[in-house]
């Protein structure tokens, strides 16, 4: 991993078009906008400054203080400069394709101030004059589908289509398709209908349409924020940190609530709040990522089925059987997923009553309760998930679905190496389980298998090789976290970021170029 910072250079590349003077001016100006804090380094000391005290934000300074902490070991070596830190989880910078391709169409000299650059006063909330999707689709090529067509307003993810003329023979179908990586590569420019499934396109927070430097913990495709490590990963808290002893205030190598692999519950576990997006425009909350997953995992009906494909017998690597299994039975056997808190329930059609009708709700659990389960689902909320590093550090397996790239994205390997990637449709979730853990009782019954009469712990029913593969992923993820995802690695990343930002900040940047 030495000197492999391609993502960092990719984030900073657009700023090489600006002079050092222009970057310094833009950094100061964007710090005047709501929910942007400045980490200001002067004479080897870093301070957190908020120059917009008139706007109250409950999240103010948390991420900025985290970034300042990451510079603590080397800040005395750095020149004077400013880092505008995003106080929000969501991405902030969206620049139209035309403005990136033809910069002369826009004002490039910011000397007249931020309002001149933005075309007027900046309103933090969208109100009635736009939304993130309208701003985002302008980042696409003019010939792309997102620019040329308005996609249907009809939700297309609430019902399961049924082919009444289909053969009675069950084939694996789309549910047996596994993704190689996360959905951060999904191209919404050419599949605009898919944006209805992701809450970040409905955020209440207005984006910034000009190339201003904003440092954020994650960014979705199309955004131009500069990635930094999350303060949730760097700090130690009982909600986000594996092994944190909140009584003795020390970090332990093994979490006190960790469970040996053989004793872990062979189920898919998730707990979280109903976060996931805003309400601009309103009415689309049922299609947000967390709501869709919970509705799938909470379904108790026997009318909806999922096609589950499993090795038959479980020891086989070449012979597979498919069966249409009632989703209610599957969920009862393998799912333990629930909301624990309602956030902005009024934005969900029907309010709190409808939320509780459509989704399972349960009690909050400590982070350590997750380690009792083999499969830990990791879903985006308002932005990236702050628990991913703790899931990797555990002896369980993260199953991650995300549309975000983070500072470590180029360093970690999905596709059953360090974690299991999950598509944004979640349709393969039941087959992921069947591949590693074998068929459930309801699956065997639906397949009319003779194995259904055997005890669940029978050697003939158990997916021994699949369980070994699953455990290898858990071990590899834990090893990655302990060698590449340490706080030390985050500090090294931030140090390199600071050095490159210092080059951009300086008027004599070319004198710092490396040459042989």
UniProtKB/TrEMBL annotation:
<dbReference type="InterPro" id="IPR006598">
    <property type="entry name" value="CAP10"/>
</dbReference>
<keyword id="KW-0808">Transferase</keyword>
<dbReference type="InterPro" id="IPR051091">
    <property type="entry name" value="O-Glucosyltr/Glycosyltrsf_90"/>
</dbReference>
<comment type="similarity">
    <text>Belongs to the glycosyltransferase 90 family.</text>
</comment>
<feature type="domain" description="Glycosyl transferase CAP10">
    <location>
        <begin position="172"/>
        <end position="480"/>
    </location>
</feature>
<protein>
    <recommendedName>
        <fullName>Glycosyl transferase CAP10 domain-containing protein</fullName>
    </recommendedName>
</protein>
<dbReference type="GO" id="GO:0016740">
    <property type="term" value="F:transferase activity"/>
</dbReference>
């Amino acid at each position: 991993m030495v000197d492999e910072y391609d993502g960092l250079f990719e984030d900073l590349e657009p700023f090489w078009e600006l002079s050092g003077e222009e970057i310094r001016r833009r950094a100061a100006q964007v710090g005047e906008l709501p929910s942007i804090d400045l980490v200001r380094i002067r004479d080897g000391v870093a301070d957190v400054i908020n120059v917009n005290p008139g706007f109250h934000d409950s999240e103010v300074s948390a991420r900025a203080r985290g970034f300042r902490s990451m510079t603590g070991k080397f800040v005395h070596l750095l020149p004077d400069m400013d880092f505008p830190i995003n106080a929000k989880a969501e991405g902030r910078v969206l620049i139209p394709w035309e403005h990136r391709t033809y910069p002369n169409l826009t004002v490039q000299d910011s000397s007249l101030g931020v309002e001149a650059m933005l075309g007027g006063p900046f309103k933090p909330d969208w109100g009635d004059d736009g939304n993130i999707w309208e701003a985002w689709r302008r980042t696409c090529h003019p010939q792309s589908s997102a620019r040329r067509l308005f996609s249907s307003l009809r939700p297309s993810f609430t019902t399961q289509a049924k082919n009444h003329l289909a053969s009675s023979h069950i084939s694996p179908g789309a549910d047996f398709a596994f993704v190689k990586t996360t959905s951060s590569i999904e191209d919404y420019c050419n599949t605009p209908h898919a944006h209805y499934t992701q809450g970040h396109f409905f955020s209440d927070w207005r984006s910034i349409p000009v190339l201003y430097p904003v440092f954020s913990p994650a960014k979705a495709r199309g955004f131009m924020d500069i990635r930094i490590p999350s303060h949730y990963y760097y700090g130690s808290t009982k909600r986000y940190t594996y092994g944190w002893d909140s009584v003795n205030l020390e970090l332990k190598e093994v979490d006190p609530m960790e469970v040996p692999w053989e004793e872990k519950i062979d189920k898919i576990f998730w707990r979280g709040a109903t976060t996931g997006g805003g309400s601009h425009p309103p009415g689309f909350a049922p299609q947000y990522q967390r709501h869709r997953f919970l509705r799938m995992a909470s379904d108790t009906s026997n009318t909806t089925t999922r096609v589950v494909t499993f090795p038959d017998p479980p020891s086989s690597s070449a012979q597979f059987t498919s069966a249409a299994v009632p989703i209610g039975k599957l969920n009862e056997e393998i799912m333990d997923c629930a909301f624990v808190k309602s956030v902005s329930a009024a934005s969900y059609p029907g309010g709190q009553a409808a939320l509780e009708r459509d989704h399972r709700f349960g009690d909050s659990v400590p982070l350590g309760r997750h380690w009792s389960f083999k499969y830990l689902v990791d879903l985006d909320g308002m932005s990236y998930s702050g628990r991913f590093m703790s899931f990797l550090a555990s002896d369980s397996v993260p199953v991650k679905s995300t549309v975000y790239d983070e500072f470590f994205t180029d360093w970690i390997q999905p596709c059953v190496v360090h974690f299991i990637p999950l598509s944004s449709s979640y349709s393969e979730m039941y087959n992921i389980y069947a591949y590693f853990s074998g068929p459930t009782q309801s699956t065997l019954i639906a397949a009319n298998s003779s194995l259904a009469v055997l005890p669940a712990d029978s050697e003939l029913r158990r997916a021994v090789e699949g369980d070994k593969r699953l455990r290898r992923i858990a071990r590899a993820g834990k090893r990655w976290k302990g060698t590449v995802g340490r706080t030390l690695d985050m500090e090294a990343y931030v140090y390199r970021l600071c050095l490159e930002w210092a080059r951009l900040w300086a008027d004599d940047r070319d004198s710092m170029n490396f040459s042989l």
